[in-house]
Amino acid sequence: MTDSIRVVQYGLGPIGCGTARLIAERAGLDLVGGIDINPAKVGQDLGDLIGLPGALGIPVDAKLVDCLQRTAADVVVHTTSSSFKRVWDQLVGIVQAGIHVVSTTEELAYPWWSAPELSRQLDRIAKDNGVSVLATGVNPGFTMDTWPLAMTAVCQEVRRVKVIRIQDASSRRLPFQKKIGAGRTLTEFQELVAAGTLRHVGLTESIAMIAAGLGWKLDDIRDDIEPIIAEERISSPYLTVEPGQAAGVKQIGRGLAKSEELISMDFQAYIGSPETYDAVYIMGTPNMEVVIKGGAHGDIATKSIAVNAIRRVVEAPPGLKTMLDLPIVTCC
Ligand SMILES: NC(=O)c1ccc[n+]([C@@H]2O[C@H](COP(=O)([O-])OP(=O)(O)OC[C@H]3O[C@@H](n4cnc5c(N)ncnc54)[C@H](OP(=O)(O)O)[C@@H]3O)[C@@H](O)[C@H]2O)c1
Predict the structure, then answer these.
(1) Atom 30 of ligand 1 has which residue's CA nearest to it?
(2) On the chain, which terminus has fewer CB atoms closer than 10 Å, C or N?
(3) What pLDDT shows up at residue 2?
(4) In angstroms, rounded to a whole number, what is the distance separating the alpha carbons of residues 135 and 143?
(5) What Å distances lie between residue 222 and 26, 104, 118, 140, CA to CA?
(6) CB 236 within 8 A of CB 178
(7) How many other C-beta atoms are found inside a 10 Å radius of the C-beta of residue 237?
(8) Residues 9-18: pLDDT tens digits?
């Protein structure tokens, strides 16, 4: 490995372009490639596409194999999809090329509860190839799991954990606003929920990670979703929500052991929320309540934690990792 860590950005949507910009600007990291399946992006100069002041002289590739014909790489920052199953082939391709992965795939943040067999397989393939794989982000990855777990370090005992994340989604990127159903009729909202394409992905993973971190054995994890309905016309920079349409989601997550709720999550993201904050409540000795006024901005936080985690992932022993396995990730 050279002194600088050579990084390829895989997926050039709003988050991927943002992580690529951070990588390009960060001392010690070297942005050496960019990959996206969108034909409109393939062949463009990477620097131009991600909004750097000048071209990088690196064309965007459609596939990892094309990219690796031009350059070697140490790490791929992977930002293509929320679904572990959907990104499986992408991850295996990266890992089998002997390259570490930092992904923002929500279902990969703690996949051991929902997909234990796939997790074991990926862990094995990563170990066989001597690389590590981590998924992180704001949530899952920090505000509803890593941060509450870190707070419990100063507790003698913990009986329950509750996390609330309320966001005005107006300042979030368009894919996020779409994912929470903003601007949908209630019928469309319910249809998309039933199809599994409308929801914030990650409460189950955060709950499972907290339970694992505290050594709790859960019997069940629930994740219930309902629309937050606009009472008046509201607009974001990207879309307008009419009265009676969905402005976003309210999702309640519960981690249960013997029918007792040990972990609860209240996630609300909608256009026009009058307040934005993150709050963690630890019921134990001592009781604790910590609020981040204004909340962690989801897009800034996700880009930052993904890039800040690169060095930790390179230094980690091989295998499938979660934020529980790594030393604390800092801005570095
Ligand atoms: N953990 C967290 O807290 C957190 C926070 C924010 C975002 N995320 C996740 O991070 C991901 C990126 O977010 P985003 O808003 O940038 O999403 P996005 O707008 O969907 O961008 C994904 C990009 O990847 C491309 N892509 C899809 N499949 C690909 C493939 N097989 N090979 C190469 N490129 C591919 C897409 O191309 P097309 O445009 O052609 O589809 C698109 O350009 C999303 O899955 C999002 O849910 C996680």
Answers:
(1) 37
(2) N
(3) 53
(4) 14
(5) 39, 22, 21, 16
(6) no
(7) 10
(8) 999 999 999 9
Atom 12 of ligand 1 has which residue's CA nearest to it? 79
Distance 69 CA to ligand 1 centre (A): 24
Cβ of 25: how many Cβ atoms within 10 Å? 11
* Distance in angstroms (rounded) separating the CA atoms of residues 225 and 308: 31
Q: Using CA atoms of 111, 310, 35, 298 in order, give the dihedral in degrees to the nearest 10.
A: 70
CA 86 to chain centre: 15
pLDDT (0 to 100) of residue 3: 81
Ligand 1: atom nearest CA of 142 is 3
Residues of the chain with pLDDT under 70: 1-2
Q: Please name the residue whose Cα sits nearest to atom 9 of ligand 1.
A: 104
pTM over 0.70: yes
pLDDT score for 1: 47
Helix (H) or strand (E) holding 166: strand 157-168
Contact 20, 32 (CB under 8 A): no
DSSP state for residue 66 in the 8-state scheme: H
How many angstroms separate the alpha carbon of residue 86 from the centre of ligand 1?
11
Q: How far is CA 310 from CA 22, 51, 165, 295, in A?
A: 12, 22, 26, 24
Name residues contacting ligand 1 (CB within 6 A): 11-16, 35-38, 79-82, 90, 104, 106, 109, 137-141, 173, 175, 298, 302
- Nearest-atom number in ligand 1 for the CA of 35 is 33
Concatenated DSSP letters for 217-256?
--SEEEEEEEEEEPSS-EE-SS-EE-TTSEEEEEEEEEEE
